[in-house]
């Protein structure tokens, strides 16, 4: 028999992403809407082990929908990897009367939740929050849309100076395993070339492309490079390589770094977070467990956590083609 | 027999929207990619009648992907409503060797293209560009996502002052016939109430909601109102009505106005514009005509122009529900 | 004999302005630096009467330097106008052991402080916080620089749509008694004409200017109008007047409104707030009272509150001339 | 006898800065206002040598007041270092009927102009344009204010993620020889420590400061480092050093890089550019030469180019003190 859920815990874990606060707010308010209690768990699984809890009512999430980061903080927990750690965490939840858990984060976060569910039969629901958009089962993760806007705004600025000096810029963006940020922001920023982990076009093709770009009359160039790119050289080595082989180019490097993780979320991410939070709580109340809520074909749907963890989010072939045509 | 297309004309018409320049750029570059000529037509159908044309190569659209407005300008054309005007326009296209047309705009733009196609059997393809998102056959029109971000950023600022003074603000946003901007931006901005044309909740429900909000401890309130709202009062009358009935509220009004139409497009709108431009040109080259290219279930698809014009874009029931829960 | 100051109260009053939180933070941290206690007083003078106080240490102002609005809230107090109200406020300060007061606001705020000082000999120091920049004794009030950026960003967006349609826009900006926002933002936004309270150029000159602008080949026009402009017509009447007299113009109106008061403060305002807060506290500790701290010739200086209230901040003749030349 | 000036040339040189376009616009429009011709010289001194000139009327600078970069492009010219190069440049100016020159840039730009004036008695006037604010004779260079806003906005985003993870960030900002950006943006962004070239506080003081900060309850820290800092370690080495000595800190690095040079100029920079352009042209028309126009005590004043080059812009002692107090 399914135990009736009267109190839900919510936590954020892993790298933070814009929209996490909007998701927390949505979880809290959906609980209130259904007359369920809600408890915020600080610092992810570590706070679960340490019992770092706080009751949250609808007013405790006022004015956070537009804030970057996560008011519940995030942390990596070594203790949660151990059975003892998880045992402690489970006991804390029981002691606090918390019947179910909403976890907001990425792959690692979901893996933790899945094991926890497996060991204790504890109801869990995942919300995908990471700027990398590398989660199977959702077309958009929380923070991805905001990060794209942050990146194109930064490249728009870099282009000002690139154009003024007829320079070539290598701009490194986040995405260790997935080129979603690089591909989308590269198209959006009008990059002349985009290097992503999923496609190794080779160094020669890059040189050819840059030569063609120069010949076609372009006076400046932006190459967007995913940090996980497999071309075999990082942005600084790429700079050296191009300067050796195409001495007519004045090359600069810019690594956008952690600012990509912050900032006020875009409207898209705020609305998505609100939708996912509602679905996560209501799915738990319907007795479902061990799923991730996500967006597919514009609808909010459930994907088993196990699939979300094992599957991989593919680069869209159509986008690759659009990218190629745009750099004509 | 389908005439082979060697030169495509592109124009923008109706209200401008962020992303139109990115779409122009995509049309021009896709033509270049397929070794087709491309001609920019200034000031919409009026420029077509006046023969205000300009050859466009891939370099003529450098550095416009991030610009608001439309470099081809837009205008409403009274002459195009007359058969003589359209006859003149058709002759100008033939004289210039232009074989097909991509029109970027909204309902009115598509209606013009549809009639033109009907009268002359001329190949046309539409790209939906309007911030209102009120076009059937696409989940997103160009400019909608950007406008949402503009609105939530403005409301974030208004909330600063609303919170500092414990005030109630009525914020009017664009959307004469459709509440998409109000509903999405209202959720995104954490509005306490959202008034849209599709749903007339009545004035009493508004008062009740505001009283409940005050009672629940909220110190400030934002009510987002679509300009086409059917509640029977404009924002200024709403202010008076609330001040009379809830004298404890200090009420202010803000009409966001035309700034919603401008600004650098969001990454989403730039990528969407790039995708739609590719599809529009390639569909023409495949011999298709009289369609609108749009986004459905994350895929670029074709909808007959006639359907796009007659159909209406519905408000999402799920979003309405999310909105209700978020204002708990 | 001057009483030794051990505890300072800080409040914000009147219209809120970006930078007020940075100033609160600076007052709190400067107190901590000098081992003085600091108390936040909520809702301005009203909170002083109601004893709505809160102890503030250096950590209680973490992460507010970049927030718009005021965490201490602001309110207009009718009770403080009465001697009884002020008596009550004074008693509350004494009971709480508060020896001196820093008030952040505009003319009205300073007038209250001046009377309070006069009646009770109570040490007060003012920090000018208002977006209007209409305070004598400082070249910049807190929030002015931020508001200018907000206005030019909004007009940049409006210009996108103005240029796309060859339109004329009247844009109303804040400034009931002073044209500082209109003049500076008008120059910054490249306005074709600027109407301010300090100069009534007359309607005929406006028509002439618009005709000259059209003749010179400008395809769109922005006219920035201060809300307190003395030309005798508000922006909506101006629109009608121009449409009647210059029917070739397609005219639109945009009232920017309260968003001008909000938003994250500019770096300039944050630094200025930090400087003024230090000076305000240290001046009180030096035994000074009844002054406003302000910026003159890039230095932080003191002006007697009485002068700050009575004096008026003049429009710069050089700027008027620059404005005229820029609209050539 | 002073030759009457009928045509003025304008160029940008050295690193580009936001506001350069607004200054070009001001020079062009001030020339038009005085019925003087104006010629744009592309790519700085190199374009002067190559005769890369273009006539500019008031309409040719429409819609650039808000654009980053420089429409006249910039370049470093090796040829201009040689007497032959400068001879060629001089002859080109004479051939084109250009009587005087306005150069926009930094130290190197002014040095070139000064030598040119010295050799040929040619009238020159300098406008300080560089984000570094390292020019003697002006409190603000063009682009400085904009760069500060860009930096604080980026750090605001980084703080979101720093706070969510209780991390320490080293953020490197521009300023090879001058700490103006680091000091102002550091105060504006609420940095816990600021490292600038003008002050070597030593590594031990940094460790102490960080320990004190942790002890005081701060959960995250931002250290802003000027790229020209003299502490003896770059940001990556600083990260290692702190991790070795304060293992409780999770340290990250962010190098903001070239995006600091771009972006739409702030209102302050646009207004300043407009004022400096007017003064530069009118000073030439009054027969003055070999000066830099700049801002001192809020007034536009002239400084002999020689002094501007030799002098150095000092860090403000008051600001250093404010910085120290704010990090309490």
Automatic annotation (TrEMBL), chains A, B, C, D:
<feature type="binding site">
    <location>
        <begin position="25"/>
        <end position="29"/>
    </location>
    <ligand>
        <name>ADP</name>
    </ligand>
</feature>
<dbReference type="InterPro" id="IPR022953">
    <property type="entry name" value="ATP_PFK"/>
</dbReference>
<keyword id="KW-0418">Kinase</keyword>
<feature type="active site" description="Proton acceptor">
    <location>
        <position position="132"/>
    </location>
</feature>
<dbReference type="GO" id="GO:0003872">
    <property type="term" value="F:6-phosphofructokinase activity"/>
</dbReference>
<feature type="binding site">
    <location>
        <position position="107"/>
    </location>
    <ligand>
        <name>Mg(2+)</name>
    </ligand>
</feature>
<comment type="subunit">
    <text>Homotetramer.</text>
</comment>
<feature type="binding site" description="in other chain">
    <location>
        <begin position="258"/>
        <end position="261"/>
    </location>
    <ligand>
        <name>substrate</name>
    </ligand>
</feature>
<feature type="binding site" description="in other chain">
    <location>
        <begin position="190"/>
        <end position="192"/>
    </location>
    <ligand>
        <name>ADP</name>
    </ligand>
</feature>
<dbReference type="InterPro" id="IPR035966">
    <property type="entry name" value="PKF_sf"/>
</dbReference>
<feature type="binding site">
    <location>
        <position position="15"/>
    </location>
    <ligand>
        <name>ATP</name>
    </ligand>
</feature>
<dbReference type="InterPro" id="IPR000023">
    <property type="entry name" value="Phosphofructokinase_dom"/>
</dbReference>
<feature type="binding site">
    <location>
        <position position="167"/>
    </location>
    <ligand>
        <name>substrate</name>
    </ligand>
</feature>
<keyword id="KW-0021">Allosteric enzyme</keyword>
<feature type="binding site" description="in other chain">
    <location>
        <begin position="218"/>
        <end position="220"/>
    </location>
    <ligand>
        <name>ADP</name>
    </ligand>
</feature>
<feature type="binding site" description="in other chain">
    <location>
        <position position="227"/>
    </location>
    <ligand>
        <name>substrate</name>
    </ligand>
</feature>
<dbReference type="InterPro" id="IPR015912">
    <property type="entry name" value="Phosphofructokinase_CS"/>
</dbReference>
<dbReference type="Pfam" id="PF00365">
    <property type="entry name" value="PFK"/>
</dbReference>
<keyword id="KW-0067">ATP-binding</keyword>
<feature type="binding site" description="in other chain">
    <location>
        <position position="159"/>
    </location>
    <ligand>
        <name>ADP</name>
    </ligand>
</feature>
<feature type="binding site">
    <location>
        <begin position="106"/>
        <end position="109"/>
    </location>
    <ligand>
        <name>ATP</name>
    </ligand>
</feature>
<feature type="binding site">
    <location>
        <position position="252"/>
    </location>
    <ligand>
        <name>substrate</name>
    </ligand>
</feature>
<feature type="domain" description="Phosphofructokinase">
    <location>
        <begin position="7"/>
        <end position="283"/>
    </location>
</feature>
<feature type="binding site">
    <location>
        <begin position="76"/>
        <end position="77"/>
    </location>
    <ligand>
        <name>ATP</name>
    </ligand>
</feature>
<keyword id="KW-0460">Magnesium</keyword>
<keyword id="KW-0963">Cytoplasm</keyword>
<comment type="similarity">
    <text>Belongs to the phosphofructokinase type A (PFKA) family. ATP-dependent PFK group I subfamily. Prokaryotic clade 'B1' sub-subfamily.</text>
</comment>
<feature type="binding site" description="in other chain">
    <location>
        <begin position="174"/>
        <end position="176"/>
    </location>
    <ligand>
        <name>substrate</name>
    </ligand>
</feature>
<keyword id="KW-0547">Nucleotide-binding</keyword>
<dbReference type="InterPro" id="IPR012003">
    <property type="entry name" value="ATP_PFK_prok-type"/>
</dbReference>
<feature type="binding site" description="in other chain">
    <location>
        <begin position="130"/>
        <end position="132"/>
    </location>
    <ligand>
        <name>substrate</name>
    </ligand>
</feature>
<keyword id="KW-0324">Glycolysis</keyword>
<keyword id="KW-0808">Transferase</keyword>
<comment type="function">
    <text>Catalyzes the phosphorylation of D-fructose 6-phosphate to fructose 1,6-bisphosphate by ATP, the first committing step of glycolysis.</text>
</comment>
<comment type="pathway">
    <text>Carbohydrate degradation; glycolysis; D-glyceraldehyde 3-phosphate and glycerone phosphate from D-glucose: step 3/4.</text>
</comment>
<protein>
    <recommendedName>
        <fullName>ATP-dependent 6-phosphofructokinase</fullName>
        <ecNumber>2.7.1.11</ecNumber>
    </recommendedName>
</protein>
<dbReference type="InterPro" id="IPR012828">
    <property type="entry name" value="PFKA_ATP_prok"/>
</dbReference>
<keyword id="KW-0479">Metal-binding</keyword>
